[in-house]
Amino acid sequence: MYNDNPTIKNIDESKQGDAFFNEQIATNTSDNNKKFYIESYGCQMNFSDSEIVASILSDIGYSSTRDMEESDLILINTCSIREKAEDTVRKRLRIFDKLKDNKPGILVGVLGCMAERLKKKLLEQEKLVDLVVGPDAYRELPNLIATAEDGDKGINVFLSREETYANINPVRLGSNGVTAFVTITRGCDNMCSFCVVPFTRGRERSRDPFSILAECKDLFDRGFREVTLLGQNVDSYKWENPDTKENVDFADLLEMTAKINSDLRIRFSTSHPKDITDKVLFNISKYENICNYIHLPVQSGNSNILKKMNRTYDREWYINKINRIYEIIPDCAISSDMIAGFCGETEKEHQDTLSIMELAKYSMSYMFFYSERPNTLAHKKYEDDISLEIKKRRLNEIIRLQQQLSYQHNKKEVGKIHKVLIEKESKKSKNDLAGRTSQNKMVVFPREEAKIGTYVNVKINDFTTATLKGELVQ
Ligand code: SAH
Ligand code: SF4
Ligand code: F3S
User: Fold this and answer.
1) Within 10 Å of residue 168's Cβ, how many Cβ atoms?
2) 210 in helix, strand or coil?
3) Whose CA is nearest to atom 2 of ligand 1?
4) What domains are there in the chain, each with its CATH number?
5) What are phi and psi for residue 70, nearest 5 degrees?
6) Residue list, ligand 1 pocket, CB within 6 Å
7) How far is ligand 1, taken at its centre, from the CA of residue 300, in Å?
8) Are 341 and 395 in contact (CB under 8 A)?
9) CB under 8 Å to 445, separation ≥6 — which residues?
């Protein structure tokens, strides 16, 4: 049982520069006369988790609302990746606080990574909060809500080694009906020294492949034409069949999902450079419906900084990996994440990040300056000694270079014909449709007779750094 279209607001704080805000309107199927309102921040994993939360709440009869003033329960699914992400959440809590003055019975719950990082402290620091629920405890929400309704605080921040929510059918929030995210792993075992995720999301675990395939097949049957397999580090997906003892790795899983139907596009995110194998690359090359696009965050182009970041690869190793990708999948687009001004970063080390970006020819990147997170390895071991001014200047240089690289990348597309999966109407004009190429580039083109959710061939005529423009061809 699940609600088809509850309300959610999604704000992606994890990606600087592309923060977006997304609202959906609710229709409820069952009713206990209670309504919830939810906002999500952070990475796609958090957005996906909000879809699980919506499913659990709908099972106990909650309907959703886009108007927090008429809700009985306000939930905020939070991110801790950088200080700014947590600041944003605290600002939102101030707004909820004002509402609570007028509506004392309303419950406020903090979910996700900030709940996990701060635990009980959050209840002490933020008096208005009634519920604190970590990412592995969402099944407990009905009990915790009941506790809070009785006037106590409801808290569960237990991190599990098994929970994958495999049997919960997520409610597709704000769905375009064409593309969907499917979580395949939870948690992360890679202790990158700057990163809070291993502490907020716990140990890495892989979801049963049969439940993944069933979810993807169900999506296809309902008209969806693209799934993105999600995890902090999808390439370390590993599952052992308890009966046969056979192993399924990420390359196998990709192949299994690709075989569901050749009209179902497969994407995945995120890949850790150390774990992406030739077997994965050969499967991408073998199946037309596995998209030629890899998000392969480098973080820094300098071997000394990479060592301090505990990324377990160095500059040369990463460059070899990039070369191998272009060798096996020549038209692959590669994107990245970069952190400017990590502890002790010299000007020369920063230059190495700029030069590796040029070597890798990234199609796009998410770019950040370093934000020290409490209790991480970097916090314990290194001084956060680069001034904010220098961090920002270096970040600007990285952003400017990426704009040039994206421009060059897109310029090469002019004159080419791409197979595009149509996702939506263009934001700018009702007469235009928008969809993506296999390389994950957004293309806008005149609608003619084309329909959302179908594949078309588009000839590229024009471009900006962010979008390609074209026309339909046979
Ligand atoms: N699992 C993914 C990353 C998830 S976090 C991976 O390993 O690629 C998304 C991005 O946020 C990271 O790639 C990194 O670039 C950035 N990030 C993480 N911690 C950060 C910090 N303390 N300061 C600034 N950026 C950070
Ligand atoms: Fe964080 Fe590294 Fe894990 Fe990514 S791989 S979530 S950056 S610890
Ligand atoms: Fe943020 Fe947690 Fe994702 S810290 S980036 S919401 S895993």
Assistant:
1) 18
2) helix
3) 232
4) 8-156 (3.40.50.12160), 179-411 (3.80.30.20), 417-473 (2.40.50.140)
5) -100, 10
6) 14, 81-82, 194-195, 197, 232-233, 270, 272, 297, 299, 337, 339, 368, 370-371, 373
7) 11
8) yes
9) 420, 432, 433, 434, 456, 458, 469, 470, 471, 472
CA distances from 204 to 229, 231, 259 (A): 15, 9, 26
Q: Residue 185 burial by CB count (10 A; 0-12/13-18/19+): exposed, middle or buried?
A: buried
- φ, ψ of residue 276 to 5 degrees: the values are -75, 125
- Structural contact between residues 325 and 274, judged by C-beta atoms closer than 8 angstroms: no
Q: How far is the CA of 195 from the centre of ligand 1 (A)?
A: 6
Give me the residue label for tokens 């704009």. 403
Going by C-alpha positions, the residue among 17, 11, 12 that lies closest to residue 465 is 17
For a ligand 1 pocket test, name from 188, 339, 364 the mutation site with the most ligand atoms within 8 angstroms of its C-beta: 339
What contacts 238, CB < 8 A, 6 or more positions away? Answer: 206, 247, 248, 249, 250
At 10, which amino acid appears?
Answer: N
**Token reading at 393:** 């200047």
Residue labelled with tokens 């061939």: 457
How does pLDDT run along the chain (474 residues), one tens digit per residue? 222 233 344 444 344 332 222 333 334 445 578 999 999 999 999 999 999 999 999 999 998 888 999 999 999 999 999 999 999 999 999 999 999 888 889 999 999 999 999 999 999 999 999 999 999 999 999 999 999 999 999 999 999 999 999 999 998 878 899 999 999 999 999 999 999 999 999 999 999 999 999 999 999 999 999 999 999 999 999 999 999 999 999 999 999 999 999 999 999 999 999 999 999 999 999 999 999 999 999 999 999 999 999 999 999 999 999 999 999 999 999 999 999 999 999 999 999 999 999 999 999 999 999 999 999 999 999 999 999 999 999 999 999 999 999 999 999 999 999 999 999 999 999 999 999 999 999 999 999 999 999 999 999 999 999 999 999 998
Return the ligand 3 atom nearest residue 232 CA.
7
The CA-atom distances, in angstroms, between 289 and each of 102, 277, 338, 420, 472 are 53, 19, 29, 12, 20
How remote is the CA of residue 196 from the centroid of ligand 3, in Å? 8
The count of residues in the chain is 474
Which of the listed residues 190, 296, 305, 338 should we mutate to test ligand 2's pocket, taking the one with most ligand atoms within 8 A of CB? 190
Q: Side-chain half-sphere of 334: how many Cα atoms within 13 Å?
A: 26
Mutate to test the pocket of ligand 2, among 45, 113, 186, 197 (most ligand atoms within 8 A of CB): 197
Measured at the CA of 361, the angle between CA 359 and CA 367, to 5 degrees, comes to: 100
Query: Is the distance from the beta carbon of residue 193 to the nearest atom of ligand 2 less than 6 Å?
Result: no
Residue 303: what residue type?
S
